[in-house]
C-alpha cells in the first residue's frame, strides 16, 4: 500500500513522513519496508504518492532513512510502477502516456492502455523475463543484500490474479534464487488477504497456498505477510521458520514490535484514515503503549 503523504511533486512531506517511520523504528532491529514509491513520473498515475526519481525526493527519503538508522533499525524502499492500474486522467494532465503490457483494460476502467511495443519492452519474450531483468538491474546498482522481492500470487486487486498462479510464481522464484542467490529476502502475501481485506476461509481454494514457493526458496529468508495476529505469527515463525510482516496493524501501532513481544493489546486501525493526502490524522497520531497506559492512569 501507499499512504499519500507526499506533495503533488511526489516529495515525501519530511516532517510527517520522517516522524511516521521514526515512530515505527521504535524497537532497535526492526525492518521497515516503505509504502509503495514511484520509480518515475511516467510510472505513476496517482497524486500524492512518494517518488524516488529526482534529487528532491531522494533528499527527503534520506532524512527518513537516517532517522530510522539512528534508532538502530533498517528500512527498504518498496519500488512501484503502476502500469494499467494508473489513473489515466492524472497521466494525461502531465502529458504522459497511459501504457501497459497489453491493451486489456481493468474491469472497472473505461479507457484501455496503449500496449507496449517491441521497442518499448526490448523484446522480452516471456512473463517472468521482465521482472528478472528488473531485479538484475537493481542488484547491479545497489548490491544483492540490499534487494528484496515481493509477490502476491493470489491477489485479485486490479485484476492481477492469473487463472493458475503456481507455475508462474514457482518458476519466477526458482529463477530469482538461481540468478541472485544473495537476495535479502522473498516477501510473499498469503492467499487469505486481498488488498487490505481478509478473505473468508470458505472462499480460499484448497490449492491456494504458498508452500510450493517456500520449498523452492528454502532455506533463504522468507517473509510471509497477510492477516497475522500475535499467536498465528508466532506459530508460523516456529513451525515454518518464516519471518512475519505486519501491515495494517503496524499503521495503528507505532510500537508494534514492543507490543507483540510483551503481549500488549493492539490499537485498532481506522481504514478511513489510511489515504488522507498529507494529513497526520491516522498516520502519526496513534498512541504508543506507554501513552495509552499513562492516559488510563490519569483517568483513575
From TrEMBL:
<dbReference type="InterPro" id="IPR045247">
    <property type="entry name" value="Oye-like"/>
</dbReference>
<dbReference type="GO" id="GO:0010181">
    <property type="term" value="F:FMN binding"/>
</dbReference>
<dbReference type="GO" id="GO:0016491">
    <property type="term" value="F:oxidoreductase activity"/>
</dbReference>
<dbReference type="InterPro" id="IPR013785">
    <property type="entry name" value="Aldolase_TIM"/>
</dbReference>
<protein>
    <submittedName>
        <fullName>Related to NADPH2 dehydrogenase chain OYE2</fullName>
    </submittedName>
</protein>
<dbReference type="Pfam" id="PF00724">
    <property type="entry name" value="Oxidored_FMN"/>
</dbReference>
<feature type="domain" description="NADH:flavin oxidoreductase/NADH oxidase N-terminal">
    <location>
        <begin position="123"/>
        <end position="267"/>
    </location>
</feature>
<dbReference type="InterPro" id="IPR001155">
    <property type="entry name" value="OxRdtase_FMN_N"/>
</dbReference>
Amino acid at each position: 500500500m501507499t499512504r499519500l503523504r507526499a506533495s503533488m511533486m511526489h516529495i515525501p512531506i519530511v516532517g510527517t513522513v520522517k516522524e511516521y517511520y521514526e515512530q515505527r523504528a521504535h524497537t532497535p532491529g526492526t525492518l521497515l519496508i516503505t509504502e509503495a514509491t514511484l520509480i518515475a513520473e511516467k510510472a505513476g498515475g496517482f497524486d500524492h504518492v512518494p517518488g524516488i526519481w529526482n534529487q528532491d525526493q531522494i533528499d527527503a527519503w534520506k532524512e527518513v532513512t537516517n532517522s530510522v538508522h539512528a534508532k538502530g533499525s533498517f528500512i527498504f524502499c518498496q519500488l512501484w510502477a503502476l502500469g494499467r492500474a494508473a489513473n489515466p486522467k492524472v497521466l494525461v494532465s502531465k502529458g504522459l502516456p497511459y501504457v501497459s503490457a497489453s491493451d486489456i483494460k481493468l474491469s472497472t476502467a473505461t479507457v484501455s492502455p496503449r500496449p507496449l511495443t517491441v521497442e518499448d519492452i526490448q523484446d522480452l519474450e516471456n512473463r517472468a523475463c521482465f521482472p528478472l531483468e528488473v531485479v538484475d538491474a537493481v542488484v547491479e546498482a545497489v548490491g544483492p543484500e540490499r534487494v528484496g522481492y515481493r509477490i502476491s500470487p493470489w491477489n485479485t486487486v486490479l485484476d492481477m490474479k492469473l487463472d493458475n498462479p503456481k507455475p508462474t510464481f514457482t518458476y519466477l522464484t526458482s529463477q530469482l534464487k538461481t540468478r541472485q542467490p544473495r537476495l535479502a529476502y522473498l516477501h510473499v502475501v498469503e492467499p487469505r488477504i486481498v488488498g487490505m481485506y481478509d478473505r473468508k476461509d470458505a472462499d480460499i481454494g484448497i490449492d491456494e497456498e504458498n508452500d510450493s514457493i517456500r520449498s523452492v526458496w528454502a532455506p533463504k529468508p522468507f517473509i510471509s505477510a497477510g492477516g497475522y495476529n500475535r499467536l498465528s505469527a508466532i506459530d508460523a515463525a516456529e513451525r515454518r521458520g518464516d519471518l512475519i510482516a505486519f501491515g495494517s496493524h503496524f499503521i495503528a501501532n507505532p510500537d508494534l514490535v514492543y507490543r507483540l513481544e510483551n503481549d500488549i493489546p493492539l490499537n485498532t486501525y481506522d481504514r478511513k484514515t489510511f489515504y488522507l493526502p498529507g494529513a497526520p490524522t491516522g498516520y502519526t497520531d496513534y498512541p504508543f503503549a506507554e501513552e495509552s497506559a499513562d492516559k488510563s492512569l490519569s483517568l483513575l
